[in-house]
């Protein structure tokens, strides 16, 4: 299986770039819970934000990728767009029904159209393929040498609402999109060294993960660790999350909006981290290094450093209480690039992740291999004695690193 993909390059602190755009790994459960959160209040207009954020970042990444690959014809550029969609785990996208005037883009397989249903556990009343719509519009604009915002969705069929094949019909449009910001301001200095003793060899963990094939299969899907992964665009997540908070500020519920984003992070940690710690790969590589619960925490932090989220360090584990520092957490670097310095912490996903590690290890005893179902989630995250995260520092507020501390409730 040969795909025309621009090189994915390292950018320090565990970050990776494709076409100048930072990538991060996230799963279908996070994609579901985040999108569900953003669409709770239709009056916020977040559907347009999600579509436009997808189009903006894909346009930037695909434009640079086609230039790097030397692709000049519309057919070659659309082929590269299909390859990129599949390579990153979004599914399969067919542009055969399109011209420079638009047309019908088909998605026989779609992460957003089909795999969010696994996380939801119930039918959808709304189409879920908003990212696909933005991707298709960006691809058509790049292929035909047009500006972003040159196509809009005229109609849509999505597998999430019963369509056998997704269909996105595009028509000419003139819209202005927010400019893409790329990697943002990253730390020039290396991350602090590992300072808390553990039997976990993080370098060995990272080397083992680097040997895994974490690209979309022939259907463009990336099943791994019991979830469906996507190698997604960090600034897509950043744009939609931060714009949600900004729009909620007018309602007087900004604190609640931030907590909802952290809650989406809990679900990400529960399913992705839980799946990883139950996986054959964990049993083969990490588990033999773990003699204590603390080692399980160190092991999961080591794995996180392969996800493109920045460099995590365990700063302390005094009496089992976890403090993590993060150099170049992708949320903070993205916020600064988009809006400048923040007036409150913005590491929502990371906050959910830090508490998630503690809850899985300390409360749920993930080492015993429990079933990752709703009852186990309630035990881990909703019972007395579960952990929540306090943001002590945030690099988006001017600190060198973000510092997150998990503390027990009750």
Number of helices: 13
The low-confidence parts are none
Q: Could you give the count of β-strands?
A: 13
The share of residues in extended strands comes to 15-25%
Overall 3D form: globular
Largest sheet data? 5 strands, antiparallel
Counting helices, strands and paired strands, the structural category is alpha+beta
List the strand order in the largest sheet.
1-2-3-9-8
**Rg, please?**
21 Å
Mean of pLDDT = 95
What is the ordering of alpha helices and beta strands? EEEHHHEEHHEEHEEHHHHEEHHHEE
Q: Percentage of helical residues?
A: 40-55%
The end-to-end span amounts to 53 Å
Produce the secondary structure layout.
Layout lengths: L7 E3 L5 E3 L2 E7 H11 L7 H24 L4 H14 L3 E9 L2 E9 H10 L9 H14 L7 E7 L8 E7 L29 H9 L11 E3 L2 E7 H15 L5 H24 L2 H7 L6 H12 L6 E6 L6 E5 L2 H10 L8 H16 L10 H8 L5 E7 L8 E7 L2
Antiparallel strand pairs: 1-2, 2-3, 3-9, 4-5, 5-7, 6-7, 8-9, 10-11, 11-13, 12-13
Summarize the structure in words.
- The protein has 410 residues and is α+β, with helices and mostly antiparallel strands.
- It is built from 13 helices and 13 strands.
- The chain has helices at 28-38, 46-69, 74-87, 111-120, 130-143, 202-210, 234-248, 254-277, 280-286, 293-304, 330-339, 348-363, 374-381; strands at 8-10, 16-18, 21-27, 91-99, 102-110, 151-157, 166-172, 222-224, 227-233, 311-316, 323-327, 387-393, 402-408.
- The strands form three sheets. It has a five-stranded antiparallel β-sheet.
- A hairpin with a 5-residue loop joins strand 1 (8-10) and strand 2 (16-18).
- Helix 2 (46-69) runs antiparallel to helix 7 (234-248) and helix 7 (234-248) runs antiparallel to helix 8.
- The longest helix is centred in the N-terminal third of the chain and has 24 residues, at 46-69.
- The termini are far apart.
- The model has no long low-confidence stretch (mean pLDDT 95).
